[in-house]
Write a structure and sequence with these properties.
single chain, about 325 residues, alpha/beta, Rossmann fold, 2 domains, seven-stranded mixed β-sheet, five-stranded antiparallel β-sheet
């Protein structure tokens, strides 16, 4: 029977992206009975063990936190999850595959806050792929989860338009806020009606956003400057964009498009202002770089410090 009673919610998420949604539910009439997140892990050069942003937010709110290493291999974790008697599980960038037994355990199943306009960019890196591909819009899809990777029916969509200067970080922040704003109306409808309408995805329109690796950050200077600019805006801060300057790696933090043209070989440092020849005769200007084992600096400082030199070929 439809009911307006508050829902018993299990929240499953890990990074900063998931925190606004968790906070929204914590401050609603619905009850977060448990939070699942990735285990604390070592970070940084000192490998200091740190709890995830979701872990810290849940602890601050006095909510029980669990962090199993796996659900697929841990039948006890599956049983503990089912024993919570949840009405719904809300998942946002959790990072673990949920087997069918977990998907089916809550009364209304599991719903996911996904950072793309499905079926475009199913997978682990939808925000970065949207920026890298030069998409004109992105958004959040709230979907009912099923066994396939981001293939479930869509409940709600929110759209944002991407200006040319969009970075992965700015889009991440916009979509995190959007996810937090979108989840409560869905939960409220579910509590009132006992169901939420959904729409099947068109699988023929799907694209895949695989997990990023450090190798994705290497610049191919034969690409047009516009494509390299998108790569830089998409992959900072992680995995970062880089090129080889001689025997040393040079990270590229920020760059900008130039209206100048160049006939030099792609990758050639053209001048002391940090202009680099790219594919198709286009030019990109390096604005902020970080030499290997060095600090961030502007291109002029990098050239003055002999980290790069006019005439040298970056590779």
């Amino acid at each position: 029977m439809p009911s307006s009673s508050p829902l018993r919610v299990v929240f499953m998420g890990t990074p900063d992206f998931a925190v606004p949604a968790l906070q929204a539910i914590l401050h609603s009439s619905h009850k977060v009975v448990c939070v699942y997140t990735q285990p604390p892990r070592g970070k940084g050069r000192g490998q200091t063990v740190q709890k995830s942003p979701v872990h810290e937010a849940a602890e601050a709110a006095g909510v029980e936190v669990r962090h199993p290493l796996s659900f697929k291999k841990d039948l006890a974790a599956q049983a503990d999850f089912a024993a919570l008697g949840a009405d719904i599980a809300v998942v946002a960038a959790y990072g673990l595959i949920l087997p069918q037994a977990v998907l089916d355990a809550p009364r209304f199943g599991c719903i996911n806050i996904h950072a793309s306009l499905l079926p475009r960019w199913r997978g682990a890196s939808p925000i970065q792929r949207a920026v890298w591909a030069g998409d004109k819009e992105s958004g959040v899809t709230i979907m009912q989860m099923e066994a396939g990777l981001d293939t479930g029916p869509m409940i709600e969509k929110g759209v944002v338009h991407l200006p040319p200067e969009t970075t992965a970080q700015t889009l991440h922040d916009d979509l995190a806020r959007m996810g937090g704003a979108m989840i409560l109306p869905v939960l409220d409808r579910l509590a009132m009606q006992g169901f939420v309408a959904s729409e099947k995805q068109d699988d023929s329109q799907s694209t895949y956003a695989p997990m990023l690796t450090k190798d994705d950050g290497r610049v191919d200077w034969t690409q047009p400057a516009e494509a390299i600019d998108r790569q830089i805006r998409a992959l900072n801060p992680w995995p970062g964009v880089w090129t080889m300057a001689g025997e040393k790696r040079l990270k590229i933090i920020e760059a900008s498009l130039s209206q100048e043209g160049a006939s030099a070989a792609p990758g050639t440092v053209l001048d002391r202002a940090g202009h680099i020849a790219c594919g198709g005769g286009t030019v990109l200007r390096l604005d902020v770089v970080q030499p290997e084992n060095g600090k961030r600096m502007d291109a002029a400082a990098a050239i003055n410090g002999q980290h790069i030199r006019p005439g040298v070929l970056l590779a």
